[in-house]
Amino acid sequence: MTKTIRPLLAITLLAAVLTGCASGPKYAEVADAIPAIKPGQGRIYFMRSTSVFGGALQPEIQLNNHVVGKSQPGGFFFVDRPAGPYRAKTSTETVMALDFSLYPGEVKYVRTEAAFGLLLARIGFSLLDASIAEEELQDLSYTGRPIAPVTPVAPMAPAAAR
């Protein structure tokens, strides 16, 4: 390696390590607070495993041209949307996209992952089977919007006591 590439590589690796991992509560800590899917809607989980490669690259994820979150290593988030056709995409040195349909009550799991590009890493998409995705979610941190905690509902008092 040339003398100018070594420092650049060291800085890039250090940046990836320092900025690479999502922080937040683990899936098990928020699972009970995730609300039920509303009628006519489906849920889309976006998830990315922890990896040193491409860790500093955390592009926004768009769903039908609306930003819904970021692809963060070690993180996940979800969005609920009406049933219909969707296109998830990110843009780094090139646009990467995934087209799919969402049905009422359906849950889709979309993995984002870094891949080699010409100049930069790219963030690509793949749909995961629920059994694989649910296992992977256990190790990931929630990076989405705050979830209202689930509060237990007290039972109603018997009619005679009211």
From TrEMBL:
Q: Keywords assigned by UniProt?
A: Signal
InterPro entries referenced in this protein's UniProt entry, alphabetically = DUF2846 (IPR022548)
Domain of life of the source: Bacteria
Q: What PROSITE patterns is this protein classified in?
A: PROKAR_LIPOPROTEIN
Q: Does the keyword Signal apply?
A: yes
Q: Does the keyword Signal apply?
A: yes
Signal sequence range: 1-28
**Which segments constitute the DUF2846 domain?**
40-116
Q: What is this protein called?
A: DUF2846 domain-containing protein
